[in-house]
C-alpha cells in the first residue's frame, strides 16, 4: 500500500537518522561500502514498491535495486528500477550523495548523470526517468584512515538547485526526442547537524521557482509522470490521489484492462 504524505515524511526522517548514524560511526567506510547511499536507495525503492498494484505484482512487476539495464552502448547498474517481466523497465531512478569534496567533484558528477540519462533514454525513450541527489547543508570535516582531514565546506546549494533544475524538466510532449534531461529530479539538502534533522526544501524553493524538487514528493511525481505518459495502461501503479490522477482512476471494469497485465494463473 502506498504511503500517505505523513507516512512518507516519517519514513524519510527515520532513514536520515539511520544515514547519520552510519556516517558518524565510520565516515570513510560509510561511503566506500555504499551502506550510506544504499539506505537512501532502499527508501526510494520501498516508496515505489507501495504504489505497485496487487494485479501488477501477480503479473511480475517488481522493484529491483542495482538492476543491470542495457543502455545505448553499455549496460548500467541502475540504482532503483521498476521492471515489467516482458516489457522491460518502466521507471528508472539514479541516486547519488556527496558528503565531502562537493565543490571539487560536483561538475564531474553532473556530466556523468547527464550521460546516464542519454544512454538509457536512447534505448528506452518512453521510460520514466528520475534522479535523486543528496548533499549535506554544510560539510563537517572528518578524519580519514590515513589521518588526513577532509575540508569544511559551505556548498552553494542555490546554484546547484538551478543546475539540477536545468536537467530535471523533460518536455511532456517531446520527450521521445529529448535525451539528457530527467522527468523528475529530487535535490535533498539535509542539515544533519540540526536536532531533529531537517531537509531544507526552502533553499530549493527560493532558488527555483515553479518546479517541485523535493524528495518528499519525488516518487509520487514519478508515478504521475508514468500515468500521464501511458494513459492507455491501467493497474500497474495506484493513483497518487493528485488532481490529475485521483482515486477514481483505479475504479472500473477489470475486463477492460490491457492484456499485458493478465493474471499468470
Structure at a glance:
This protein is α/β, with parallel strands linked by helices and 265 residues long. The chain has 8 helices and 6 strands.
Could you explain how this protein is built, in words?
With 265 residues, the protein is α/β, with parallel strands linked by helices. It has one domain (5-52, 61-216). The protein is built from eight helices and six strands; from the N terminus they run ααααβββαβαββαα. It has helices at residues 5-25, 27-32, 35-51, 54-58, 102-123, 157-166, 201-207, 218-229, and strands at 62-70, 75-84, 88-97, 128-136, 184-191, 198-199. Strands 1-2-3-4-5-6 form a six-stranded mixed beta sheet, with helices on both faces. Strand 5 (184-191) and strand 6 form a beta hairpin. 34% of the residues are buried.
**C-alpha end-to-end distance:** 23 Å
How helix-rich are the residues, as a percent range? 25-40%
Largest sheet: 6 strands, mixed
Beta content comes to 15-25%
Average residue pLDDT: 92
Domain unit count: 1
**What structural class do you assign from the helix and strand content?**
alpha/beta
Silhouette: globular
Strand order of the largest sheet: 1-2-3-4-5-6
Secondary-structure element order, N to C: HHHHEEEHEHEEHH
Total helical segments: 8
Low-confidence stretches: none
Tally of strands: 6
Give me the Rg, rounded. Answer: 19 Å
Topology:
Blueprint: H1 5-25, H2 27-32, H3 35-51, H4 54-58, E1 62-70, E2 75-84, E3 88-97, H5 102-123, E4 128-136, H6 157-166, E5 184-191, E6 198-199, H7 201-207, H8 218-229
Parallel strand pairs: 3-4, 4-5
Antiparallel strand pairs: 1-2, 2-3, 5-6
Helix pairs in contact: 1-3, 6-7
Amino acid at each position: 500500500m502506498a504511503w500517505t504524505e505523513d507516512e512518507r515524511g516519517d519514513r524519510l526522517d527515520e532513514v536520515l537518522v539511520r544515514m547519520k548514524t552510519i556516517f558518524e560511526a565510520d565516515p570513510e567506510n560509510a561511503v566506500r561500502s555504499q551502506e550510506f547511499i544504499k539506505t537512501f536507495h532502499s527508501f526510494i525503492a520501498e516508496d515505489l514498491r507501495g504504489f505497485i498494484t496487487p494485479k501488477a505484482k501477480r503479473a511480475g512487476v517488481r522493484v529491483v535495486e542495482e538492476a543491470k539495464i542495457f543502455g545505448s552502448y553499455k549496460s548500467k547498474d541502475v540504482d532503483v528500477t521498476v521492471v515489467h517481466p516482458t516489457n522491460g523497465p518502466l521507471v528508472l531512478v539514479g541516486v547519488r550523495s556527496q558528503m565531502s569534496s562537493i565543490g571539487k567533484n560536483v561538475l564531474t558528477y553532473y556530466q556523468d548523470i547527464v550521460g546516464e540519462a542519454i544512454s538509457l533514454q536512447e534505448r528506452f525513450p518512453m521510460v520514466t526517468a528520475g534522479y535523486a541527489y543528496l548533499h549535506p547543508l554544510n560539510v563537517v570535516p572528518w578524519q580519514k584512515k590515513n589521518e588526513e582531514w577532509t575540508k569544511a565546506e559551505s556548498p552553494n546549494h542555490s546554484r546547484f538547485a538551478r543546475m539540477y533544475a536545468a536537467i530535471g524538466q523533460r518536455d511532456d510532449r517531446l520527450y521521445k526526442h529529448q535525451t539528457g534531461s530527467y522527468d523528475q529530479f529530487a535535490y535533498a539538502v539535509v542539515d544533519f547537524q540540526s536536532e531533529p534533522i531537517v531537509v531544507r526544501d526552502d533553499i530549493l524553493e527560493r532558488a527555483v521557482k515553479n518546479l517541485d524538487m523535493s524528495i518528499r514528493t519525488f516518487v509520487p511525481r514519478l508515478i504521475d509522470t508514468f500515468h500521464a505518459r501511458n494513459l492507455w495502461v491501467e493497474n500497474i501503479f495506484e493513483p497518487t490521489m493528485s488532481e490529475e490522477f485521483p482515486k477514481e482512476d483505479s475504479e472500473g471494469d477489470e475486463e477492460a484492462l490491457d492484456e499485458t497485465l493478465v493474471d499468470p494463473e
